[in-house]
Amino acid sequence: MYRKVKRHSFIMFFFSCLVIFNGCSRDDEDVIPRGFSGGDGTADAPLLIETPEQLFNIRYYPKKHFKLISDIDVSDYWQDWEPVGEEGKNEFQGAFDGNNYKILNLSIYRPAAENVGLFGVVNGGAIIENVNLENVSITAQHHVGALVGKNLFGYIFNSHATGEIKAQRYAGGLVGSNYDRGEIWGCYAHVDVEGETRLGGLVGWNDFGNIANSFATGDIQGKLRSGGLVGARMGGEIVNSYAVGKITGEVGTGGLVGVQWPMTGVEKSYYDEETTGQEDSGKGTAKTTAEMKEKKTFRDWDFEHVWAIDEGETYPYLQQRKEQIPYPQSGLGRIWENKGIIYMVAIFIGIWIMIIKRPQENMN
Length: 364
Description:
Largest sheet: 12 strands, parallel
Oligomer: single chain
Helix content: 10-25%
Shape: globular
CATH class of the largest domain: Mainly Beta
Number of strands: 35
């Protein structure tokens, strides 16, 4: 009798979980926002943005799909932008396509704030692509980047930023912190970064995230753990990337990466030893300015679809035509996008253990 009641209780628990999960997964998905220039927020019909007000309002629909259809000068309306997405509350989990238009003059002055950028916190497999931020000016404290302050789980493609950032720590020209499911691909930053520690031209702190086919040219001025591309790296991979900005610091500086653990995971990536003023090894390969402007230096880089170079005149630069860039397909991302299936499987396993496996063990 007790065993039947126990099984009945767990069955009721199972259906309760289904109801809760279904309710939690809906959020804003069934809401069709008004006030945009078209679309319904789905992947096939993203909400269209052409005004600063519409850009601001994406925060109210963090799981929707958005697309810019015009350049936007943020300074016309806000001198102190409020980042989109708070950690644990309305984190951005949708998709934002900048459509290669420009977002101009983004200004944020929040000296005591963390998770600061156009987007504050990105999670849930969000996709941010084709975003061009120009003349950014940000002052904040921790986890600060022109595009994203903290990337917990998001894919950032084909985007760039110019400007300046001042912060204490975890600050990067494009992304402040890039965590273990964060992917950055085909991006660059020309942003001067100034602060205390974990400062990078592209990413301040890389915690098992991945960076590929990206570069940074901004100057970095800090005290500890400062690098031309990444300030500090704990795992993850850096592939086919480079940095050329001047690095100023006291301890733990590097031309490409300031400090890293482990000492593996940086592949086919370089820094200009003359412009950076660095000569470290094991965290990227040092080259002269002349070598950095020669195609032969960048062995196995894709100069057909991804990169281009004016031999002897320029550093490598990214081809910006989206249709030519083969975005990477992350197996983890595809699985996580179906997180509902994962939750269901986990619930079934739990029920199997509690009402079938354990009673059998007790009988033995």
